[in-house]
Design brief:
The structure is a homodimer. In chain A, the strands form 7 sheets. A 9-stranded mixed β-sheet of chain A has the order 3-10-11-19-16-15-14-12-13, sandwiched between helices. Chain A folds into 3 domains: 281 residues, BirA Bifunctional Protein, domain 2; 61 residues, 2-Layer Sandwich (Herpes Virus-1), CATH 3.30.40.230; 109 residues, Anticodon-binding domain (Rossmann fold, 3-Layer(aba) Sandwich), CATH 3.40.50. The first copy, chain A, has 17 helices and 26 strands. Chain A is an alpha+beta fold. Chains A and B meet through strand 2, helix 2, strand 4, strand 8 and helix 8 of A and strand 2, helix 2, strand 4, strand 8 and helix 8 of B.
């Protein structure tokens, strides 16, 4: 399986494809088709239910995408959120200068100043990999998209490069609304934007993408996690910073052994465990998941420690699909400083403190990529998606065997009953084998067929997507049968 | 009830408030709080279920927000999507020139060229209403937000001013994915952006807002609607263009009498009926709804006829909350012309045609405003939101009467069972009366209280938000009780 095959497959069945294809597409921007939009909605719904509706400590918000510019001054994004770029003087192609130096010279210059990278490029006479031309000066390029708000020039604003800051700036209000509970978390799902130099790998590196984030606030002096005993023994494929420095590979280990002593350690372990559970619950192959501690020089400017949940793509190798960052008190302190408002919380004894925060941050598109990599099956007979019913675009498809002799009428009646409870699809066109294949491709777990026997004994066949086995069930028991099978479904 | 009272209420209970308040807010941009995000998600979910999952003819997509610039050249937005503005030379305040002329002189110049409006302003010596200063020249101001995509200057792109065009550009692909069905519709929910000169009235006129749109395609030569008999007799408060020209007011009339002979007339009537039904299903007061035909000079450049669903706000009067536009073949024809690709559909006999399209387009925020106006109740004792359980932030709240004597343990057990099926809230802090009031304010239909009697006979009280009546129910029957009451709930 490779990303190109998956991209072609996704375009073909209506999951996702480049936006504005009729105008040649637009690099880094994708549209979701009829099948993809259902999958995406399902993943977001399951995430929200898991972390907001099923967790007492967490409430949601939904912040603006175009945002007051001061937010990004305080957060450090105006100052820090840039890449180093260089452009070929001959062919005009632009490159990330640090990536180029790594690829051509094998030198890691991530995070180094532009001048230093420029010097390395001159000294080693690095040329344009595409045409051999001379490279222009290495410059900073801020990754935030700008837009002007209001008439007559307007105010320079930014499309949010992360959803997180909308949570931080709302902390004082939401903390009061949550009646000063501590620890507590704020969750948000929504679009974010980064003006990447070279978007690539289908949905993996986009300019417009969607995040699902939680900012989980706690008192560093009272940081015990009540669920710690449930999660501390859990095992994952783990890789600490130390192991990486020693050149070791990931190995099965207790999550608790991944995180050193630090404020909020128990909560960090809890969030790693919950994160892995979430991925598995939407059908990501647990054998392809590892948790890797970021090396100190990889970490963002705000981070006291970051653990990435990574997925092993056959062709791209291990890649981050979620980051869990310990942001300390950085963001709340900065907003307190820049706004002059209080970002403090209050302890039962009346003393005040700025909460620390742990941030589990998922990419929606990357989660779906990992799901699809895990689910895609192709053999001589067919292609099918072995995805979990709770995220499948449709749970059930209903067919009359033929579109005559009263079969469509019976099938439609069953279909109408089913769709009051489950996402369902009705199809009477074409031969039955093709109709099954089409549902296999988009991952519909169950196909119900009304045939001539239905007219005699009121039974229908239910076909299982994965085994292709069929069983006969009385039509009045179909809904209960589906309910039961969805509930007990295991990857 | 006025919009200011509602805005204050919404901020107080955590529905919505200005974004980045700590930095002074940002005109036209709002954030949704813990209560509001649940309401918004619920409205969107009900809409999607109603129009996508429950209608065979409709599939969904989710398009990019930052979009290829050619899309907006073809759509006419680069050329036409502007306001006329003028700015006071003294105080610098900007105005929509046409609104200013209407307010000051009572002359309707909507859609007139900038030069003509400029002449009227000079001739009548219209001055700045704020400081009396001289007004600058009347100019065009395009309402699309621009942003540059890519490094080194980048490509000028636009934040979509409507979701619709993302549907139109994807028509050829989605039509094939839907196996050339006709009529058929494509639905989409998502953000859109308009750089309004003066955003105002809380969530009513925003710069960043959310749309729920359907583009419903049909063959003008085969435009019968199979559901027409079900809807043609339905009545609404209606107001035709003719009635407006005669100075008449809205009156109860058959929807069928609102729409003159035109291609797709039956579908237009169907969409008006479905639209009104949707509003009522989420709790908008039907007595405050009317359907008004737009006058020819109000219509957008693409429209062959537009009917607005309007809501009567106490203070703002009748205002559009949904527009249903007949866009003819305008958009598909333009994209065919600009892209050189085919946007034709095929009839069973093999002949080809460009489909016509009817576009029902809802504003998410306006729908919620109308819901909240309809639901808000205030008397001497309390403020409560009489909203439908299917859109209420929580369906159930669970309380122990006191947080001791084993009552919290029983209450939490009940709460955990309920929340597997319903959005539920648990609260054991503060006195019971205050806890009820707090749930009343955010519209929770049912509050369940565990008291001392529960320990004896295993019954709990269930309190109805609207009547404040309580009844005792056995704790094992609570889930069934809620299921039944939610199902039968009527405004």
């Amino acid at each position: 399986m490779d990303i190109k095959t998956l991209a072609d497959f996704c375009a073909k069945v209506g999951i996702a494809f480049p936006t504005a294809e009729i105008y040649g597409g637009f690099s880094g921007f994708y549209d979701w088709g009829p099948v993809g939009v259902e999958i995406k909605n399902n993943v977001k719904r399951v995430w929200w239910r898991t972390f907001v509706h099923q967790m007492d400590e967490i409430v949601g918000i939904d912040g603006s995408i175009v945002t007051h510019p001061d937010v990004w001054k305080a957060s450090g994004h105006v100052e820090h959120f840039h890449d180093v770029v260089t452009r070929c003087k001959k062919c005009g192609r632009a490159y990330r200068a640090d990536k180029l130096v790594l690829e051509v010279l094998g030198i890691n210059v991530e995070g180094k100043p532009a001048e230093e990278i420029d010097t390395i490029i001159r000294k080693n006479n690095v040329r344009c990999p595409s045409c051999g031309g001379e490279l222009g000066p290495v410059e900073y390029f801020n990754l935030m998209f700008e837009t002007k708000v209001g008439p007559y020039g307007g105010v320079t604003s930014y499309l949010r490069p992360e959803t997180a800051q909308l949570i931080f700036v709302n902390f004082p209000r939401v903390y009061l609304l949550a009646r000063k509970r501590m620890p507590f978390g704020i969750a948000q799902m929504g679009k974010a934007y980064r003006n990447e130099i070279s978007p690539r790998n289908f949905l993996f590196r986009l300019r417009e993408f969607e995040q699902m984030e939680i900012e989980f606030f706690f008192d560093p002096k009272d940081d015990a996690c009540p669920y710690y005993n449930e999660v501390k023994g859990k095992k994952v494929l783990g890789l600490t910073a130390e192991m990486q420095e020693r050149g070791e590979k990931e190995r099965p280990m207790r999550i608790a052994d991944l995180v050193p002593e630090m404020p909020g350690r128990e909560w960090m372990i809890f969030w790693i465990a919950k994160s892995v559970d979430f991925f598995v619950s939407v059908g990501v192959d647990p054998k392809r998941i590892r948790v890797r501690e970021q090396l100190p020089d990889e970490r963002a400017h705000y981070s006291m420690g970051t653990w990435d949940v990574e997925f092993r793509f056959d062709d791209l190798g291990w890649q981050e699909i979620e980051g869990i960052a310990h942001r300390g008190t950085y963001d709340l302190s900065r907003h307190q400083e820049f706004s002059g408002k209080s970002f403090e919380a209050v302890r039962p004894d009346g003393s005040k403190f700025i909460p620390m925060v742990i941030e589990p941050s998922w990419g929606v598109e990357r989660t779906i990529l990992a799901m699809l990599y895990s689910a895609y099956r192709k053999d001589e007979k067919r292609t099918y998606l072995r995805i979990h019913p709770q995220v499948a675009p449709y749970v059930v498809a209903v067919f009359p065997l033929v579109s005559k002799d009263g079969l469509p009428e019976i099938a439609r009646e069953i279909y109408k009953e089913i769709r009051t409870e489950f996402r369902a699809f009705y199809d009477e066109k074409g031969n039955i084998g093709k109709r099954y294949r089409r549902q296999d491709e988009i991952g519909t777990p169950f196909c119900i067929t009304v045939d001539y026997q239905t007219r005699e004994d009121e039974t229908v066949t239910i076909r299982d997507r994965d085994t292709m086995q069929q069983e006969r069930v009385h039509k009045d028991e179909v809904v209960a049968w589906i309910r039961e099978h969805v509930k007990n479904w295991r990857v």
